[in-house]
Amino acid sequence: MRYSILLATLGRTTELEPLFRSLAQQTWREFEVLVIDQNPDDRLVEVLERHRAAFPMRRIRSAPGHSRAFNTGLAHATGDIVAFPDDDCWYDPDLLERVARFFEQGPACTGLTGREIVEPGSSSGGRWDSRPGLLTRDNVWRRAITFSMFLRRSLVESLSFDESLGVGAGTPWGAGEETDYLLRAIQQGHWIHYDPSLGVWHRGRSGPYTPEIYDKARYYGRGVGRVLRKHRAPVAVHLIRPLGGALLSLCAGRPEKARYHWSIFAGRLGGWLARPDALQQAPEAQLVSGSQAHLR
What we know:
Blueprint: E1 3-9, H1 17-24, E2 31-37, H2 45-51, E3 57-61, H3 66-74, E4 81-83, E5 89-90, H4 95-105, E6 111-118, E7 133-134, E8 149-152, H5 153-156, H6 177-187, E9 192-202, H7 211-230, H8 236-251, H9 255-273
Parallel strand pairs: 1-2, 1-4, 2-3, 6-9
Antiparallel strand pairs: 4-8, 5-9, 6-8, 7-9
């Protein structure tokens, strides 16, 4: 069983090192890495050369956009399983082996997802479900993020990513592309399993709250709101959580954190309320670089 690992990247160089080092240490060696380069220059050449001897690697150029880059990569993927790591995440040494064994033992499932793990001092993008099981329309929001997805070739050959969603799309919808993709897969009848013991390390968010952080939270929130509207999903629970976070933070005397949660709430509400044909350029989209759609 062979992997195609699609690494979409923009604006980063040294941040790729932890992932490359973790790939070199994998106990399962049957994989190729497709580096989907959205940069207008050759900044990646040096870092790629340092790791080229450790595993098979190809560099593929793509126009900007997280979803657009994945679609470009899918057109070149040859593996039985496709993975979608962020350019600032990394794997435990036995991760690919664990995923391969799952697919060998569960031939009916066409996908597997896990959860995000962050280092101490960083915050995770979501509250992860503690129970394993199949993804559904209701629980997919707590059971998947792009870099925790591992999908069989039979699934990815039947679906492409919505290129109006995600970082760099040139639209107001800065996130939600993986949730939209999985919801459409579920609708097609695919069985995708969630295992909370399967973790992918991610840099997460840390440091002070800044205007850029607030802009990103609103930008990503709009994408989630857009997906909620697109799939006619119940919106109330996805609005109550960030609104409650804003109120609790305000009561605790933490106005910066309250503003952060409010930005997520406002973004989700705005994305849900937007007209279906609304594709105006979002100024926040110009502030975000790299495949960092992890604020949930």
